[in-house]
Predict the 3D structure of the following.
Amino acid sequence: MSAIKILAIESSCDETSAAVIIDGKIMSNIICTQAIHEKYGGVIPESASRLHIKNIMPVVLEAMEKSNTTKPELSAIAYTQSPGLIGSLLVGSCFAKSMAQALSIPTIAVNHMQAHVLSNLIESPTPNFPFLCLTVSGGHTQIVVCHSPLEQEIIGSTIDDAAGEAFDKSAKMLGLPYPGGPLIDKYAQLGNPIKFKFAEPNIKNLDYSFSGLKTSILYFLQKQKKENPQFIEENLNDLCASIQHTIIKILMKKLILASKQTNIKEVCIAGGVSANSGLRKALKENAITQSWKTYIPKFEYCTDNAAMIAITAYYKFLKNEFADLQTTASARSL
């Protein structure tokens, strides 16, 4: 039997990424980040789409070359179908469909959030099924029970804003440049995490809420700046540490509850915010106190990347879950 070789494309936001997976092993994972959005303080959707068009061909070619794979050897081409910026998604999906049609091979449509969860299966050690995964990104915050690679159950999610957005919006309030989440993480390591207290949501079940926390931070900063215009500059490290501590505390509280309710001790994190050093440390600490076996993807598999699309596509290929030309991209999860 010939090897299963899949080219995967990720273009849901502002990273153009391509990866090649061969028989379940990632052979290349190329990521091109669009730095232009930094000066605007956020991603400009139309600019992102245009840059995807510019970047996708060289990124794909580099992924193919690094994996020593030729186009006739490909078994299928995978792409991110949803969720994401619709223009960005269309660039990736249209490229994948066109290339696959030219090569007379099938396409595989992948859900971006499902792929984040499966980033934990890319490299050993991998979690045993069923496992819990806290998926935290700029647009989503979810607790997922993963029963098998293609069977995932969302048991908790945010009812308003995502944790990643809370990081970035808090950073903006502090006057930090975009993307602010990693900067909060950087300065937090130099500060006192219990110096300042912020409101924590009281949400039932396993759902999250971060809108109230953002409001609490905003009102606190406004009050302090009236009394001392240099308050933020003089307390930046402690503010970052306290904000990060509060967000992580909220995240871990529900994850611990989910573990107790499901009696699952195999616990993972995924998504862009899983690169946060504070969250990684908290997960490792709870591994001891909660008797968990924990798993954290490599940094390159935390942020948006095509390797996670590729590993998901590999399992879908094994189940013959192929898409057709009528399969459309969607900004929301399908």
